Amino acid sequence: MGREIVVQDNRAKPGDTEKITINLGPIDLGQIDLLVQEGFYSNRTDLIRTAIRNQLQLHGDVIKQTVARKSLVLGLQHYTRADLEAVRDSGQKLQIQVLGLASIGADVTPELALAAIDSVTVLGALHASAAVKAALAGRIH
């Protein structure tokens, strides 16, 4: 039976990371522990984070091409109440497409979000109030 490992970057500021959970078999877990014990990595999380970054770097060209093709914003995109009010007042609607972190201001009401946001596609994490997420549920892909 596999063991569960929770990966979290403790060096980052709170809110800058998302917690993921993976299940590993005992042999993989033992090999990770051996590399940690031998000093190659400071802990399990360090090894797993490094492995993920290496894979992302290996596929970097594909990621860049896909980001460009899909017109995704890469990184952090924050939408303030003033941003959304300006969009609403212009009669337009946003199609939010982010690879990374999209955040909607805590003072944004569900009504404003619905009036200003047509769709949300986030590959990564969406930070918004529970009420705004609930209001946009049918528009989040």
Automatic annotation (TrEMBL):
InterPro entries: Arc_rbn_hlx_hlx, RHH_8, Ribbon_hlx_hlx. SUPFAM superfamilies: Ribbon-helix-helix (SSF47598). It comes from the Bacteria. It holds the Pfam family RHH_8. Gene3D superfamilies: Met repressor-like (1.10.1220.10). Transmembrane segments: none annotated. GO terms for biological process: regulation of DNA-templated transcription. PANTHER family: BLL4998 PROTEIN. This is CopG family transcriptional regulator.
